[in-house]
Amino acid sequence: MTTEQLVAEIRQKKSFLCIGLDVDLNKIPKHLLALEDPIFEFNKAIIDATHHLCVAYKPNTAFYEAYGIKGWKSLEKTIQYINENHPNIFTIADAKRGDIGNTSTMYAKAFFEDLSFDSVTVAPYMGKDSVEPFLAFEDKHTILLALTSNAGAFDFQTQKVDEKEVYKHVLNTSKTWKNAHNLMYVVGATKAEYLKDIREIIPESFLLVPGVGAQGGNLQEVCKYGMNSSVGLLINSSRGIIYAGNDENFAKEAAKKAEELQSQMSIIL
Amino acid sequence: MTTEQLVAEIRQKKSFLCIGLDVDLNKIPKHLLALEDPIFEFNKAIIDATHHLCVAYKPNTAFYEAYGIKGWKSLEKTIQYINENHPNIFTIADAKRGDIGNTSTMYAKAFFEDLSFDSVTVAPYMGKDSVEPFLAFEDKHTILLALTSNAGAFDFQTQKVDEKEVYKHVLNTSKTWKNAHNLMYVVGATKAEYLKDIREIIPESFLLVPGVGAQGGNLQEVCKYGMNSSVGLLINSSRGIIYAGNDENFAKEAAKKAEELQSQMSIIL
């Protein structure tokens, strides 16, 4: 999917909501556990109930890998279901991969070709030759971790190198990489005040912003400092939406939560 | 596996060789492609031919994920085969994972519980709360990326924060984390001269050293600066061993290359 197609979808739906599909068997409604593939059935119900309210879905691969081959099958069925039924929805494999060159190419093939995701999240620690193999895929997007939403972000990301924080070096340096136009960035909503500085370095890029809701980030603040003329934001909510309910009505409850966020977004747009 | 068991295996085999199982269908002998699971058959033959020469096997997950569910099955069969037939061999899931707390726990479950690996490689960019969930598993080892073997290591890892490089901050900070005794570190052989400084910060820890062979690192140099009284080194070679031959004799050729390295190691020990 091109960035222009993503922006068009945002304008049409008046939403820049991304729903995180982080499915934990211990947290989903009990009645689903009797089905053959509870994780996929949960996702399918959430997707059916929310696809008109969001522009992106983001399965976090950890929650699928934890169940081995069965989990990987649920992930495959989920991405196929989205691509077949809602081809205009942007898909993110939240995998936080990154390795030396030839190995990153294998990860890129796994997510862009084998699973047909539109994008994948990538960790920057190993530098240029670990990220450029992902960027080589045209109309696929590499979402680089810049400033994450967790407390550990202050361990290394905000340390200062030559008066500038490590995450700013990541932003600046990544702009020089080949096919940098395929980059987006992860910036946590819990650090909204940093967005002003970040927008000075990467005014045009899309930002994937986790941490609104369960982690305490504030939507208005993120938009105030992070929005650009093409919107430039995908706001993710996972637990706050998908676990809103815990009985037969869970999908309806999820849709209600998604609608709350979408209606706030439509006012801002 | 405990560190003591690993050290005992090293002493007994006079080897601290780790063999990387980075299996690319385009590179394995053509006659294997007719079999039902060529990746597993390749690994099985390599393991059968080399298990007496090495103390660790390290499948890089990218090479399995690239083939989707089929690849994940090959990975599962490979780790089961090692654990059943060679329980004294240390196993490393080279996965370079890392995410916010609850998500890292899911990754830890995937590799430590579902697949029964002894260890997993983890990226440090997201800090303490992204790594500690892995460290919580007793007798399992978390191998943190410190200074990697690729050119991109110079993009961020060697940048200086308060006169000290980022990777040294990673080493120092990680020592303060809960269950830090379960940490090992990745240090590339292509940067052997850095090992002296690194050993001042983490004298006791095991180092996983990739980059000997195909990437140009030198075994003697690595041992000179990196070895400690418990050996403290796992030297990895992947392509240099597993692709030594390309016909029916590939496993024998691989064993020959592994034996060359092991005999150099036995002299050093």
TrEMBL record, chains A, B:
Main EC class the enzyme belongs to: lyase
Involved pathway(s): Pyrimidine metabolism; UMP biosynthesis via de novo pathway; UMP from orotate: step 2/2
GO terms for MF: orotidine-5'-phosphate decarboxylase activity
Domain Orotidine 5'-phosphate decarboxylase positions: 16-254
GO BP annotations, alphabetical order: 'de novo' pyrimidine nucleobase biosynthetic process; 'de novo' UMP biosynthetic process
SUPFAM superfamilies for the chain: Ribulose-phoshate binding barrel
Pfam families membership: OMPdecase (PF00215)
Statement: the UniProt record of this protein carries the keyword Zinc: no
Superkingdom, natural source: Bacteria
Family under the similarity heading: Belongs to the OMP decarboxylase family. Type 2 subfamily.
Name of the protein: Orotidine 5'-phosphate decarboxylase
